[in-house]
Amino acid sequence: MTILKWALIFLLVSIVAGVLGFTGISAASADIARFLFYVFVVIFLVLLILGLTIFRA
Predict the structure, then answer these.
(1) For the chain, which terminal residue's Cβ has fewer other Cβ atoms within 10 angstroms, N or C?
(2) What is the DSSP string of 1-57?
(3) Which of 11, 7, 51 is nearest to 27 (CA)?
(4) Are 3 and 36 in contact (CB under 8 A)?
């Protein structure tokens, strides 16, 4: 859950920076948020597949 929380924090930083006119910082933090979200999704899917197949009791 920590990766998702950091992705949301970077998303909020991106929105605030965009509203204040810092477009470079906004784009960079949006890219970081997108990357962290994709990492979260990949980890979630891997653990879901492992839970449904290998670790079935």
Answers:
(1) C
(2) -HHHHHHHHHHHHHHHHHHHT-HHHHHHHHHHHHHHHHHHHHHHHHHHHHHHTTT--
(3) 11
(4) yes
What does pLDDT average to in each consecutive run of 10 residues of the chain (57 residues)?
Answer: 88 93 92 94 94 81
Model pTM score: 0.81
Q: CA 30 to CA 55: how far, in whole Å?
A: 36
Q: Which two tokens stand for residue 52?
A: 């449904």
Q: Which residue has the tokens 């906004």?
A: 26
What is d(CA 33, CA 31) in angstroms, rounded to the nearest whole number? 5
